[in-house]
Design goal:
- The complex is a heterotrimer of chains A (300), B (266) and C (403).
- Chain A is 74% helix and 1% strand.
- Chain A has one domain.
- The N and C termini of chain A lie far apart (55 Å).
- The radius of gyration of chain A is 19 Å and the shape is globular.
- The longest helix of chain A has 31 residues.
- Chain B is built from eleven helices and ten strands.
- In chain B, strands 6-7-8-3-9-10 form a six-stranded mixed sheet, with helices on both faces. A four-stranded antiparallel sheet of chain B has the order 2-1-4-5, covered by helices on one side.
- In chain B, a hairpin with a 5-residue loop joins β4 and β5.
- In chain B, α3 runs parallel beside α6.
- The N and C termini of chain B lie far apart (42 Å).
- In chain C, 72% of the residues lie in helices and 4% in strands.
- In chain C, the strands form three sheets. Chain C has a two-stranded antiparallel ribbon with strand order 1-2. In chain C, strands 3-4 form a two-stranded antiparallel sheet. A two-stranded antiparallel sheet of chain C has the order 5-6.
- In chain C, a hairpin with a 4-residue loop joins β1 and β2.
- Chain C is globular.
- Chain C starts with a helix and ends with a strand.
- Classes of the chains: A mainly alpha (300), B alpha/beta (266), C mainly alpha (403).
- Chains A and C meet through α2, α3, α4, β1 and α9 of A and α1, β1, α2, α8 and α14 of C.
- Bound molecules: adenosine-5'-triphosphate and magnesium ion.
- Magnesium ion binds next to α1 of chain B.
């Protein structure tokens, strides 16, 4: 039972991180129908930015939790800036081109960012300080739910609620929903579509940044390839839930997190990534519109 | 030409998109050698009807029967578009769908795909059979381009043709599939009056010289009135009238559908 | 002035953007921080200048693709002019052919080996070009088929001592089979989903090769693969390299010949049409699955052959040679070269392989530049280095014709 609970919370933690990244994919896809392949790199950049902040502040002797807060803020700011810039350079000039061009551009962007960080920092694994520490009140449960896991789950839940409220109740949120439904119509009705698209990238990147910093605290080390793997898995989660659907992405992320956690816990840990990729392939083959999505008839 | 056979028979055709009922209980029929027009206001479901008939959409309900001049009847429901084309029905598209970076001739040559056989090995070895087939295809495509008046553009990219010419190229491409029933979706859209008259003649020639039956969607009433043998009228996905052009033109329901309530009273 | 302001803004923006990653390097264990302010200068300068170039390119693109000479005639790119001038093209081809034939006698084994690698990538590029360039299916897991070929030879050679020439068709067949097995379920998918599924498939293949020790010997791979022998004569390392070199020339020639023929055939036209407009293509009577599957299987076949040669050349393979980056690099070759263009893809393969080899300073930045190039090409020149030309037909008035 304890092992089960441990796996359960492990799955919940993974699922939370995947959800933070998956939302970026799903929101962008919902609005410009692009698989933003470079999204995982934004998450990786978030982790690296967090590491740099942590390194500088630790050297100056700040307390861990304060460092975590600053690292989160700085990572969010920088990742938003990267996401915004990326859209302006690699995707905006391609609006109206055929479907594959932006996707190839996105792959190029992903390779570029990965190697940019490789050259600017290092190809090696870097240790990431544990900024969360162990809470005293968690001591009795530490074997099934670590403090870092708890923080990840709580922060993710808060981010989800905030995002949902934003999309439901604010003017910009409404504009986003309108653009997702019908970009041309939204434009005719006076929605500033360019601003909406930028905002989508910014929100998605911010969430990825949070995910990047938190997961780095949790795993204790980062390197330039973490974005690629996490990106693919988060994308799997997005597709699982039905790409373009925000609750779908959250659900898909949890399903994937639990699948991985239980499969590695009860079956074999060698094939951790194979389970995720296998799930992705199976879902796309048998239910390409995802768990919550509906198959649209293409208009001819 | 007595006792003409029915080439296409559509019964109780319905199509739903989620909650939207784009077609409900539509009946249609086309006789051998007829030119039938399908008209109706924007959004009436005409194109949807074409898409159901040609296998691009899977209709929610209804039967679609195709009978070749040799008398063989086939139910089209559930067939893929390429199978439908192979059975002898070809179409054009309302919003032109050519292969833009292929040449004009190649666009037409593609139409012969389902009537030719050479495969990979033939293509690599270029044996005699493949070469002969290729020559046949090239000649036939050229003849069709002559028919639609594009024989001076064989090597141009399809995307470089003017609008009206692209529409004619679509017709040639459809003809290359050797159909006995041709479906034209707004062939005159975007053409000037002179082009439209030329198109009318072309459609008549295709019917007469190639022994084709034609179903066409058109908003240009002058063209509809002058070339069609019969007209079906759709409104909001339902068939509201059917008959000769004169009958349909006098039908108060049709006038109402097109011009609104007041027009009938006046 | 307007431009200067914009560039200044870009300069400041990118300095801000790159500041933490480029300037600061931390060591959390030692609690030290390293500041590299010089880098900031380079970034600022680079961003300032590049933003001029960027705007110039954008303006040129907005004015329409076709640049014109001062006298108003359109500028025809050299390579296009070349293909419009068969005698000149033929003499250049002859020079290249002769150069290629004498290469191993003029240069060292090391150089020859590099050329073999370059030619392997030409074959890979042209193979993927069938799938991506001609039939328009974006495949991101092409390295899996390459691996299928390489591992076929490696394992057959290791366990059963099979020779190169027996393994070549077997490897090609194994890859084709993989292509068909994967293709049947996934080819119904929309373009971008197909891309992701093939990526997933590619990663699965690599992970399985890495973890299934009994089958593939895990991460350490298979070593001691035999080099091809000439009529059962064992060749020296140098001899074998030369031999493989000529073999690759043959394979490249065969590939170009085959693809050239396919391109202007019934099947080739169907691929192209499928790429241009799937719905119209199907409505014109083309069987979508069958057509896509032939492209897929054929593309995989070539990857398989390249894989066998690769294994024979290096005599050692492991899963690390078949990562996603490998697939991405082959895709970059196709994109750069120009989808569907044989000449373009060959040139791009040579460029991508040889530049970093001969410009050592450049090799560190190789992948960075790849990524940037892919983006830039999509933005400014989606047709690639050489846009593919279609065959022209001449008709005399007497309805006689010839291709
Ligand atoms: N794939 C689809 N998904 C959802 N709705 C669709 C789809 N295709 C068509 N419709 C809807 O069905 C209705 C009928 O459309 P259709 O294109 O058949 O009209 P039409 O008679 O051809 O009009 P027009 O003269 O403007 O071409 C419209 O309301 C359209 O929005
Ligand atoms: Mg219509």
């Amino acid at each position: 039972m304890e092992y089960f609970l441990e796996l359960f919370f492990g799955g919940l933690t993974r699922g939370s991180i995947y959800a933070l990244i998956a939302l970026g994919y799903t929101m962008v896809y919902g609005i410009i129908e692009l698989i933003n392949f470079a999204h995982g790199e934004i998450y990786m950049i978030g982790a690296f930015t967090g590491l740099i902040v942590a390194g500088v502040l630790t050297a100056m002797g700040f307390p861990a939790l304060a460092i975590l807060a600053v690292a989160l803020v700085v990572a969010v700011v920088y990742c938003s800036a990267y996401g915004y810039t990326m859209e302006k350079i690699a995707y905006k000039p391609l609006r109206g081109a055929n479907r594959l061009s932006p996707l190839i551009s996105a792959i190029g962007m992903s390779i570029f960012l990965q190697n940019y960080v490789l050259l600017a920092q290092t190809p090696n694994f870097l240790p990431f300080p544990n900024l969360i520490g162990e809470f005293e009140f968690m001591e009795d449960y530490a074997h099934i739910l670590g403090s870092a896991n708890l923080v990840i789950i709580l922060v993710t839940a808060a981010a989800m609620v905030a995002l949902t409220l934003f999309i439901k109740y604010t003017r910009m949120g409404r504009a986003m929903r309108a653009t997702a439904q019908n970009r041309k119509m939204a434009m005719l009705l006076g929605v500033n579509v360019d601003a909406v698209i930028s905002l989508t990238f910014i929100i998605g990147s911010s969430l990825a940044a949070i995910g990047g910093v938190l997961i780095a605290c949790h795993t204790g080390q980062i390197n330039i390839t973490i974005g690629f793997i996490a990106g693919i898995k988060a994308f799997t989660a997005a597709v699982l839930g039905g790409v373009g659907s925000i609750p779908g992405a959250m659900l898909g992320a949890l399903v994937l997190g639990f699948t991985e956690s239980f499969a590695t816990g009860y079956i074999s840990s060698d094939y951790e990534d194979v389970f995720a990729f296998g799930l992705l392939v199976l879902i796309l083959i048998f239910r390409p519109s995802g768990l919550l999505g509906k198959a649209p008839t293409q208009k001819v | 030409m007595s006792a003409k056979t029915i080439v296409l028979e559509v019964k109780n055709l319905s199509m739903n998109f989620g909650g939207l009922r784009a077609l409900s209980d539509v009946d249609l029929d086309i006789l051998q050698g007829e030119i039938v027009a399908l008209i109706g206001p924007n959004g009436a479901g005409k194109t949807t009807c074409f898409n159901c008939i040609t296998g691009i959409y899977d209709p929610t309900e209804g039967d679609i029967l195709l009978r070749s001049p040799q008398g063989k009847g086939v139910r089209l429901n559930g067939l893929k578009p390429n199978q439908v084309t192979e059975l002898g029905m070809a179409r054009t598209f309302q919003n032109i769908r050519l292969f833009p970076s292929m040449t004009v001739l190649e666009n037409v040559m593609l139409g012969t795909h389902c009537r030719t056989k050479s495969g990979i090995l033939g293509a690599i070895l270029r044996d005699r059979k493949t070469r002969e087939e290729e020559v046949r295809v090239v000649n036939k495509s050229y003849e069709l381009l002559k028919l639609v008046g594009l024989d001076h553009h064989v090597n141009d990219l399809a995307s470089n043709l003017p609008y009206g010419a692209q529409r004619r190229l679509e017709i040639a491409r459809a003809l290359a599939t050797d159909p006995f029933l041709l479906l034209l979706d707004e062939p005159a859209a975007g053409m000037n009056p002179n082009e439209t008259i030329a198109l009318e003649q072309l459609v008549m020639r295709i019917r007469d010289e190639l022994d084709m039956s034609i179903l066409l969607i058109e908003h240009d009433m002058k063209m509809v009135m002058s070339i069609s043998d019969r007209v079906h009228v759709l409104e909001y996905g339902q068939k509201i009238a059917e008959g000769t052009p004169a009958e349909v033109g006098a039908n108060p329901q049709v006038i109402k559908a097109y011009l609104g309530e007041e027009a009938v009273d006046a | 002035m307007e431009g200067f302001k914009k560039s200044l803004l870009a300069c400041i923006w990118f300095m801000f953007l790159t500041f933490p990653l480029v300037v600061i390097r931390v060591d959390t264990a030692e609690k030290t921080v390293q500041w590299r302010w010089m880098h900031m200068l380079w970034v600022g300068l680079g961003a300032f200048l590049l933003s001029y170039v960027w705007r110039f390119m954008l303006k040129r693109k907005a004015m329409g693709r076709s640049a014109t000479n001062p006298d108003g005639t359109p500028v025809v790119p050299f390579l296009q002019r070349l293909s419009a001038n068969p005698p000149l093209a033929r003499s250049i081809m002859a020079v290249i052919a002769i150069g290629a034939l004498v290469f191993p006698w003029l240069f060292s084994t090391y150089q020859t080996n590099i050329m073999i690698s370059a030619m392997i990538y030409i074959v890979l590029g042209l193979g993927l070009n069938i799938v991506v360039g001609l039939s328009g299916q974006l495949v991101l897991g092409y390295a899996a088929f390459y691996a299928a070929g390489a591992y076929s030879y490696a394992l057959l050679n290791h366990h059963f001592g099979l020779g190169f020439w027996t393994a070549l068709p077997l490897g090609a067949g194994a890859a084709a089979l993989c292509g068909i097995i994967l293709g049947i379920p996934v080819l119904r998918l929309r373009g971008d989903y197909l891309a992701i599924v093939t990526l997933g498939f590619g990663e699965i293949v690599r992970l399985v090769l890495e973890n299934w020790n009994e089958f593939s010997m895990g991460p350490s791979g298979v070593s001691g693969i035999s080099r091809p022998g000439l009529f059962s004569v064992e060749l020296s390392v140098d001899g074998a390299t030369t031999y493989i070199y000529y073999l690759m020339i043959g394979l490249v020639a065969l590939t170009i010949f085959v693809i050239n023929r396919l391109k202007n055939s019934r099947i080739g036209r169907a691929w192209l049409a499928l790429r241009e407009d799937e719905i119209a293509c199907v409505a014109m009577g083309v069987d979508r699955m069958k057509t896509k599957l032939t492209a897929f299987a054929l593309g995989a076949t070539w990857a398989g052959m390249a894989g066998v040669v690769f294994a024979a050349k290096t005599t050692f393979i492991n899963p690390a040679s078949f990562t996603f980056m490998e697939s991405a690099m082959i895709l970059a070759i196709v994109v750069l070269g120009g989808m569907g263009s044989i000449l373009g893809v060959s040139l791009a393969a040579l460029l991508i392989l040889l530049l970093p080899e001969y410009l050592r300073a450049f090799s560190e930045y190789r992948m960075l530049l790849f990524g940037a190039t892919m983006v830039l090409f999509m933005v400014f020149r989606p047709q690639g280095l050489v846009s593919s030309e279609r065959q022209r037909y001449e008709f005399k008035e007497t309805k006689e014709s010839q291709g």
